[in-house]
Write a structure and sequence with these properties.
292 residues; alpha+beta; Jelly Rolls; Arc Repressor Mutant, subunit A; five-stranded antiparallel β-sheet; globular; Homeodomain-like_sf; DNA-binding; HTH araC/xylS-type domain-containing protein; transcription regulation
Length: 292
Amino acid sequence: MKKISTYSIQHQQKIFNVSGGNKDYFFLELGSHSLFYPEPRRSEAYSISFLKEGEILLQAGLVTQVVKAPAVITLGPTVVRTITETDIQPVMEIIFFTDDYLLANRTNVFYLMEFDFFEDEDLHAFALNKTQSKKINRLFKMIREALAAHHLHEPEILRSCINLLIYEINAFHKLQDIVKPSPAETISPLLVNFKQLLYKEFSRERSVAFYAGKLNITPKHLSDLLKKQTGKTAGEWIDEAIILESKVLLQNKELSVSEVSEQLNFSDQSVFGKFFRTHTTLTPLQYRKTAL
């Protein structure tokens, strides 16, 4: 039974035949010998891609779009993604990095949560104008040069370049009034811990009490806090995670509805079907027909 894989940064290096050792970052250039593959997957790493020429077909979550150069693509670890080539050959540069690497020496461990474009499926791809493209190109050039020179301070230089990329991309979004402000001081550590726990356990655990217990608070306190900070209760967060995973799995024609139900640990297919219809108004088979 085919599950959605989560690739470590080392596994990604092997796929792209890149020698990165045990580093928590690596850089990739894709051109005439690109190694795209259609398998839906998650990653343990963040990535920022600079599409310099051509175009790609990107499915991130449930949003599928053709991304044309010049553009940047930002993907966080929890995002289920599929990236394939079109008839127009893409030329891309990609920097992969873990949160542990980027957050080294930072006191604000919630830093990456400030930037919606890593997780919001409507914000992953951003078309660049000429000025913006030049800015992104300069930063990727600095990354290439530091790596080529085996610079003594390579990790620090790349970390600085990644931060600059993040700030520039955030500014691009804000100029278009796309990204909603999310000040670091309003982010609760409990929210961060809940989201991390949810993405690990949602396919096995659907009880608010389970997550509240792991976080050492009452279910009511957890739901009240999430409702205040995100507009959604803990139960709604859990249901949305399951429905999103269900939809992604149902788009895989190799999986039967029964197998999708089993992967998500429902007691049987009928219980899964009832849950899915309650939250989408469609049966799993009806959704599959409309999605494919």
